[in-house]
Amino acid sequence: MAPSEQITFYTAESSPWGHRVHIALEDANAKYTTYHIDPRNKPEWYCKVNPLGKVPAFTFGGPDVPPDQPSPESAKLAESAALLEFIADVFPEAHLLPDDPVLRAKARAFTEIFRNYVDSEFRSAFFMGKHFDGLLLALEELQRALPPSGFAVGQWSIADAAVAPFLARMLLFVRVGLGTYGEEDWQRLREALASDRFARIVRYIQDVHERPSFKKTWVSDDRQLELWKNHPGLRRKAGPAS
């Protein structure tokens, strides 16, 4: 049975960390109120929700109050990975983690492979212009963790919600050439990802896009590009990656 406590979800439209939590909330069929925080102009009261000022965050329980007047009686929760686990715990009927402890471990391992390998290489390539060979090797590691078909552990889980926002943005940025590379390098990266070498993970990302919770929470390709095109870390360099 779904909890009766109120949930207020604080996020930012551009945030992939917020997006992963938004997906899980939809998967859980949760009742929640969404409040968007401007990352460049955070209101002073938001420190009452998360003293670090980061999104996403929750208030959980307590009285039903306006989002910009968080009650001291509500629990304040933050960090996207912790929020995913929280949603899985509070909404067990959504089966966001498998009942089988082996599959639960594999779901968490999949998320850790993404965090430890893919995430840092993605940032280094797209935001700092490091050659993308490291990113391709990291994607191979993640791909090896996938079953032959379906999602990370067969059934949809918080492992998929955790990585989907980042992989979807990555493929979008590659397709349009949004980032630090010149066109020659973008084309080489596009060709690499279109090769048989990455057929499984590309199929996985396509399957993610068809998930109802992803469709509902993805703000459209055009809007994503609008949100990201002026990011200072994505300015294109003049020369090829080295």
Provide structural commentary:
With 242 residues, this protein is an alpha+beta fold. It is 49% helix and 7% strand. It is built from nine helices and four strands. A four-stranded mixed sheet has the order 2-1-3-4, covered by helices on one side. The protein starts with 6 loop residues before the first strand and ends in a 14-residue tail after the last helix. Residues 237-242 have low confidence and may be disordered.
In short:
This protein is of the alpha+beta class and 242 residues long. It is 49% helix and 7% strand. The chain is built from 9 helices and 4 strands, in the order E-H-E-E-E-H-H-H-H-H-H-H-H.
Descriptive terms for the model:
242 residues, alpha+beta, 9 helices, 7% strand, disordered C terminus, GST N-terminal domain-containing protein, GST_Omega/HSP26, Glutathione_S-Trfase, Glutathione-S-Trfase_C_sf
- Give the strand line-up of the largest sheet: 2-1-3-4
On the 0-100 scale, what is the average pLDDT?
A: 93
Query: How many DSSP E strands?
Result: 4
Q: What coarse outline follows from CA principal-axis ratios?
A: globular
Put simply, the count of helices is 9
Tell me the structural class. alpha+beta
Reading the helices and strands in chain order gives EHEEEHHHHHHHH
Major beta sheet summary: 4 strands, mixed
Contiguous runs where pLDDT drops below 50 for at least 5 residues? 237-242
| Radius of gyration, whole Å | 19 Å
The termini sit apart by 54 Å
Q: Based on the structure, what is the oligomeric state of the protein chains?
A: single chain
Helix content: 40-55%
Beta percentage is: 5-15%
Protein name: GST N-terminal domain-containing protein
Organism: Trametes cubensis
Pfam families: GST_N_2
Domain GST N-terminal: 5-95
